[in-house]
Amino acid sequence: MRATFLLALAAMAAPGAASEPAADGWRLVWSDEFDGTAIDRGKWDFDVDCWGGGNNERQCYTDSRKNAAVKDGKLVITARKEKATGPAFPIGQRGEAGKANARQARDFTSARLVTRGKAAWTYGRIEVRARLPQGQGTWPAIWMLPEGHPYGTWAASGEIDILEAVNLGVRCDSCVGGVENRILGTLHFGGVWPKNAHKSNEIALPGKLDDFHVFGIFWDKGRISWTVDGKVYATQVAGDWHTSGSADPAAPFDRPFHLIVNLAVGGGLAEDRGIKGVDTRGYPKAMEIDWVRVWQCGEDEASRARCGTSGGTAE
Questions:
Q1: 59-61 and 45-46: which strand pairing?
Q2: 159 catalytic, yes or no?
Q3: In a domain, 179, yes or no
Q4: How confident is the model at residue 285 (pLDDT cuts 50, 70, 90)?
Q5: Per the domain annotation, does 11 fall within a domain?
Q6: Catalytic-role residue among 57, 159, 271, 288
Q7: Is 235 strand, coil or helix?
Q8: How far apart are CA 200 and CA 236, in angstroms?
Q9: Is 164 annotated in the active site?
Q10: pLDDT tens for residues 101-110?
Q11: Residues 57, 127, 164, 271: which is the catalytic one?
């Protein structure tokens, strides 16, 4: 796969330009190999706030090199146990009355990188090769939000969670092997909060927890499939989701979405599972990302016929 990718990358006319469709019909349209010495601010922006993600997470997100940097060909997002103070609300809410100058203190710092306003896609194949942190309260995520709110604010316009994992490596009586090893793929949809809904799938992460794995989705109109290490482990189709903002069964997952990668500490999902709460030992903790790649199907009929969710079913 690496050789095929390098050939596709070499064929690109300019950074960010689309390559010719490959033999399987997919063409590379965007990627970051993290081969430089710094995060490419032409591709990524930072969310900087201490909001807590709406989940009572315990970190402030910063744009500091201490929390996100390119090292040895990888993006390293590092959560640190250190006190910080910052904006109490995300940038999209700071125009509301009383929120512009509100501040919040937290006991951890981390980073959340976004392609919002720089790159977004409707449909395609999206993959991220990453190594995930372990420990009670860790919550790494690779996910997508819509550019704007075409059907209404969250979650009427949707959310695509490519990968979430919480508390990896922690004692888990209901897990195979007795330790937490599950990953989740989830869609959020329905009405504007609190009338939102979601549907989630989970699977035991194959192989070793401390290895790199490739997490991805195949996303087409009315169909989203989740993959790990190239194998499909779950699929949702139009009818499994809905939105109050449209009668089209494909909505809200029929508009451009941007990509987000982050490492949260604590919050509802993490603290409600495992041995509960946040284990403050063992910090700093890191999420490492080797590469991010986005393909879309060639526009010609032959390419579209070849594109598909190849790779079989995850075991």
A1: unpaired
A2: yes
A3: yes
A4: very high
A5: no
A6: 159
A7: strand
A8: 9
A9: yes
A10: 999 999 999 9
A11: 164
